[in-house]
């Protein structure tokens, strides 16, 4: 049993005094800090409650290409001119203690923190109406303690200098209600064709639910979810004493009549590009929609106005006006990732859906450069031979089989090289390569190159059956073409706030993600699709446009029953074109099958017309030798075709081709065959086919 001695009592009393003294010091310190902040906020005076300024978007040459919401859908009305139902619904769902707190709801903050801790994630918000309004008035894109501190200061300044009614009025006049609509007056007119003062209870409850997620709770986006949230708000209003049970039931049973949407979407020049730029802001820079479109920003983009105009003109001239086929196109600087031109469809006003960014389609044979890069990393070379013949592959431990076919069932029925396989787009060679190196290798390469959609682990993935986004695979080609340095599709170079301060600048440092030598070897092989000297059992896939090209390009085309692709590059520019139907309709017309290649070749020639002709420069560690592309051996003077081909140093062939030496032995000079291109009768009739 412990004995309490006078000495122990004395120590305990000292400890208690010390704790009490320290607590008092902390209390004084915190009180001083809080008082100082309040006094500072009072000294700073009231923050401006003026209507937000328009945000302006500029092209890379400094010309203006867009202005976001310059007052056409934003109106300011007095609180007295806003339906009381709107006020009650907003306070019920956003901030039930609005008229009681001093800007911060400490009980709600504690509850939200507890909920987040239990869920080990951010699951519940605790921002008051004043805090939300402060967030709209203050802009910094980074999620930092400094931003939170500034928002807290703005909150105190609002509460210190304005009445609750002033704050609520400002909030209701600046909150975002979706579709470019700001403020309750514009929202009332946009959704219901009336003034804010005339809104009924069910209408007010629906509008109060939209700001939480305009892209989710707008009745024009998802009517079911919008009205589900309306019911939640109505029940909350009853719990808060704003409604009787009878009023609740009447409001729930009232069928809402929305204003018919008659206005067309107007984005001005390069609408699809502007949408993609705004998406980059919200996704990568943590700027919410309201901040982007209401804070008077100056957004400097990567858009090349001349290239964009050329792209739009070429698409309009190439695709028949009678055709319903759609298209997507992306042009990127492979050194920086800067998007120079973008088309997401044939008519932005009719369909803002961005097929270059949002659509996921099967890429067909355009996936093969990724596969062959993987193979080079596993020891393959351009001279590696495999047999092109009908082949059935078993996988999944023998439980399944897959039998690919070449176009029109044409096969060499002999060995061909990887150099030929990519130029002729031999499917059997591709699947054999995929199975031999391991199906997981293509998946890894896709991830390295930034594909946002994962390639499936099956044999058909070698032929592009796993859907991709056009912008992703064009960017992947850019990485291969630039020697393996990581780039990302970039739409914005710089952002300035209303005061001219730079708040964002694009990062230009590039990480090496691919083997530089293997990337160059792959790029050089991709030039083969335009080289008719590689013709064999069929023609190279780029023969239909080769004569229209005036410089060296590396590329690959691809075809499925519903998609047509052409992606190719010069050192200064990589461009991809997709054509197809939105609803899975097959491409049956011969003319429509040629659109992608025609658009690509015309655009590349015109876009680079004023630029110097550049070649892909071989890095250290590769060796260029002349080979016979038919067998991959070192070419002799007697070979009918000699093609300069690059290999990773140490993997180049060492054996000379003796086939043509043997053929020529014993022949008189005039009897020796003249060099000819290998072109069968079927090639002449199917030059349009990939």
Automatic annotation (TrEMBL):
Domain Glycosyl transferase family intervals: 62-238
Membrane-spanning segments: 21-43
Principal localisation: membrane
Reaction catalysed by this enzyme: Preferential cleavage: (Ac)2-L-Lys-D-Ala-|-D-Ala. Also transpeptidation of peptidyl-alanyl moieties that are N-acyl substituents of D-alanine; [GlcNAc-(1->4)-Mur2Ac(oyl-L-Ala-gamma-D-Glu-L-Lys-D-Ala-D-Ala)](n)-di-trans,octa-cis-undecaprenyl diphosphate + beta-D-GlcNAc-(1->4)-Mur2Ac(oyl-L-Ala-gamma-D-Glu-L-Lys-D-Ala-D-Ala)-di-trans,octa-cis-undecaprenyl diphosphate = [GlcNAc-(1->4)-Mur2Ac(oyl-L-Ala-gamma-D-Glu-L-Lys-D-Ala-D-Ala)](n+1)-di-trans,octa-cis-undecaprenyl diphosphate + di-trans,octa-cis-undecaprenyl diphosphate + H(+)
GO molecular function, one term: glycosyltransferase activity
Residue ranges of domain Penicillin-binding protein transpeptidase in the record: 329-572
EC number: 2.4.-.-
Pfam family, one: Transgly
UniProt entry keywords in alphabetical sequence: Carboxypeptidase, Cell membrane, Cell shape, Cell wall biogenesis/degradation, Glycosyltransferase, Hydrolase, Membrane, Multifunctional enzyme, Peptidoglycan synthesis, Protease, Transferase, Transmembrane, Transmembrane helix
Domain of life: Bacteria
Compartment(s) where it occurs, according to its Swiss-Prot or TrEMBL record: Cell membrane
Protein name in UniProt: Transglycosylase domain-containing protein
Organism: Metabacillus endolithicus
